[in-house]
Amino acid sequence: METTYLQLFGEKPSQKMRSPLEKGDNPELDTTDFLDEKRTKIYQSMVGAAQWIISLGRFDIAVHIMTLSSFRSQPRKGHLERMKR
Predict the structure, then answer these.
(1) Contact 68, 83 (CB under 8 A)
(2) Would the pLDDT of 1 be above 80?
(3) pTM of the complete model
């Protein structure tokens, strides 16, 4: 998974964050630009992988991922940045 992340973004994932949303974060208020088709597919894939991780036992991030998954059809750059955390 880390190798795929490196191929997609050219950097290793941050080890500091434990969930995609910070306390008090409101992704529905994001006004960054919409993602292009390629980045949208990456975002959708990351949401799917995160949902799989939840089913393996990371129940603590379930609400965060479900919130971000509501933007799958038209995500913004800020949503992708949150998923990258």
Answers:
(1) yes
(2) no
(3) 0.83
CB 69 within 8 A of CB 83: no
Nearest partner of 8 among 33, 36, 39, 35, judged by Cα: 39
Question: Are 10 and 73 within 8 A, CB to CB?
Answer: no
**For residues 52 and 15, what is the distance between their CA atoms, to the nearest angstrom?**
19
Identify the DSSP state of 34. Answer: B
pLDDT digits (tens, 9 = 90+) for 28-70: 999 999 999 999 999 999 999 999 999 999 999 999 999 999 9
Report the DSSP beta bridge partners of residue 34.
76
How far apart, in whole angstroms, are the C-alpha atoms of residue 18 and residue 14?
Answer: 9
**Mutual orientation of helices 77-84 and 62-69 as an angle, nearest 10°?**
160
pLDDT band at 11 (very low <50, low <70, confident <90, very high): confident
